[in-house]
Amino acid sequence: MAATSRVFAAQLAGLPVFGPDGEPIGKVRDLVAGLRIGRQPPRVLGVVVEMVTRRRIFVPMLRVAAIEPNAVTLSTGSVNLRHFHQRTNEVLVVGQVLDARVVVESTGSAAVVVDAAMEPTRTRDWVIGRVAVRERTGRLGRRGPVQVLRWEDVTGLGLTELASQPQGAQQLIAVFDTMRAADVANALRELPAKRRYEVADALDDERLADVIEELGEEDQKDLLAHLDEERAADVLEAMNPDDAADLLAELPEPDKDRLLELMEPEESAPVRRLLEYSFDTAGGLMTPEPVALTPDATIAEALARARNPELTPALSSMVFVCRPPTATPTGRYLGCVHLQRLLREPPSDLVAGALDTDLPRLPPTATLMEVTKYFATYNLVCAPVVDEEDHLLGAVTVDDVLDHLLPQDWRDSGHHEVEEEVSNA
């Protein structure tokens, strides 16, 4: 490994990882350290690398050739591609050590770990030799200075303390800030339950809602059960109505009804409508919040709506035109305008002049197979769901179809498991 004197974990997390020939492998997500008897600094066993497939694998430190400020390079050799599983006496430095509460031995004062650094030893091993801590002053709005101390100069970082003592999550969430919701969800799955709950408690409702949408069914129910009822209802309100409906449908009836009652009426109404349909029909798959405009809207207005960053790419690919009201269920559905058509028309023209009135509509009772064939037939990523009275009820997007076509536990399995070792990482 290239000569490096000290590497801080929070700075290492997120760095791209390259193979010996410069091929991209993934990103560093954490350091794995083995706790030792007494006050000895834990030995760094390796790094957790999240591959482009989102599977997290363990790469031993012997396979790390160089750590640069902007990248990590692996050496030639074999790397096991099995999914990473934390073992007894192992600790995730970013996931579990950051935000831990410790005591500075020299002063006896309480402090919080804001970072941890690994250092090389004479035997070419790496150890977590230093921790950056901030003393807790107890004064509102005041933060103590950061000190970099030796591992043995603080207490409270044993396996028992990390597993039992309450921790904040400020530093870990700072690491998560640069990650997509799907990647944060993947990281949460790797954390012990205690730490996962602490992170959930610290995330704001909107961010937590985005992360829960990316979790598997069992993890979704587990996190929702951890929250108090009032906050669980707030998080459900922040979720996309179709995702909230899918989650509520898996809960016992009393729990589902209670949470729906706690939600604001305008937020629970679309969710209740979705719950009327089977999960494997167009009505159960659709989102009730498509881009809907009246026929007198201009092309410029339609494009402005499609540019909304909160829309998924699939949902922004089509604008639906209907008589008032434009909230679902809408007035009479007139047709749709594809994004490509919007880009070709003069901005001042009306959307009514660019309507596609020939595209078939999906009834809310259409089965998952019928919806899948519809997308394949018309080469679409978004489709209107319209009832018998010509009311637009919502839109089905291709990502929702894929979500239901894949195995139920696809989010948890990290795609197909690879059991063999491969050379040249």
TrEMBL record:
Database matches in SUPFAM superfamilies: CBS-domain pair (SSF54631), MgtE N-terminal domain-like (SSF158791), PRC-barrel domain (SSF50346)
Keywords: CBS domain
Molecular-function GO terms, alphabetical: magnesium ion transmembrane transporter activity
GO CC annotations on file: membrane
Pfam hit, one: SH3_actinomycetes
Superkingdom of origin organism: Bacteria
Classification via InterPro entries: CBS_dom, CBS_dom_sf, Mg_transptr_MgtE_intracell_dom, MgtE_N_sf, MgtE_transporter, PRC_barrel-like_sf, SH3_actinomycetes
Domain (CBS): residue spans on this chain: 286-353, 355-413
Coiled-coil blocks: none
PANTHER family: MAGNESIUM TRANSPORTER MGTE (PTHR43773:SF1)
Protein name: MgtE intracellular region
